[in-house]
Amino acid sequence: MDRDEELGLIREIIGLAERKSAWLDADVAHSPISRYSSPERYERERAMILRRLPIAAARSDDLTGPRSFRTMRLSGLPILMTRGDDGVARVFLNVCRHRGARLERADNGCKRIFTCPYHGWSWTNDGALRAVPQEKQGFPDLPRAERGLRRLPSAEAHGFIWIVADPDMSDIPDIDAWLGPLAKDFDWLELSEHGTAVTEEFEISANWKVLVEGGLEAYHFRVAHAATIAPYFPDNLSTYRVFGTHIRSVLPRITLPDLTDKPEEDWAIRRDANILYSLMATTQLLVQQDHIVWIRMDPLSEGRTAVRLSTLVPKDGAGTADQREHWERNHEITRVTLMEDFTLGEEIQSGFASRGNPSHLFGRFEGALNRFNLQVEELIAG
Ligand code: FES
Ligand SMILES: [Fe+2]
Hints:
The chain is an alpha+beta fold.
């Protein structure tokens, strides 16, 4: 974001604080619970959103150098990421093209040739078929070019490897064009200059949208986070803006309204507010004072979501034992706080079966949740 936008956002929050109000939408809104609990609805989201839009799948430096590789499961697909001698990151289905065995079993490592553990077919790390044992006898006239590894569209941008989780899609959108005006924010954050200090994965029994919604309002801070972060944030004060299908929420700290006593040249939004970037569909970046939390959600079903939580820190600030301890402490605070949200999410999900509510209600200061759901509706309608 540029300086004018930063100052504009701070002024907006100060204005809201003076009026003792969060940003208010015109009306309350209803969100039918079938959005979160119906398997058919989930299948539609998977086809129209989760398998179509770019996902921040890994950090660029998860593939440390030429010939490094990494495997993972994402969007229900077994994935093999490689970096070639040409430095290019490529993403494939981790599936043998002979009879479908898992090609690479290790989580990560360094290799140029991948050999299937079943009958020994092998591929180079750019996906080309290299060798087939007893080929002449068994597979005369094998169309080798057609037996390369199935590739997923991918791109590297802002320190992430982005993928579209569908091998039938031929291309990934240009990431900066897809981010729109937020690309400028991501430059400002210097995401490429960040490394991963701590990362962990876990599964939550809740619909992915329930988890996204948990990050889009500050109404719950005072109650749900009473034991953790609530003292650092004013009650129910936030603002948001929609950028295409993405949302940027600004969650001011309790110190922000005091900036009125300081000259504008001393204002810095990251010091006095958290910023949450919620990219459609499952990439969230929670920008804190000196680090950025990357939340990667991987929906597994209508009621279950795998979450990967990574604390990204400036590359020049990750070295000493003191620094590592600082990041680990911060990661722990984030984990405990998010678990408060995720536990609520699991309780909400398990309540759907009771039919206690035909729909959820979004207050005027929860408008970002409605906007998010309307975007999802539009996308699944095609
Ligand atoms: S299944 Fe991989 S070589 Fe046969
Ligand atoms: Fe929360």
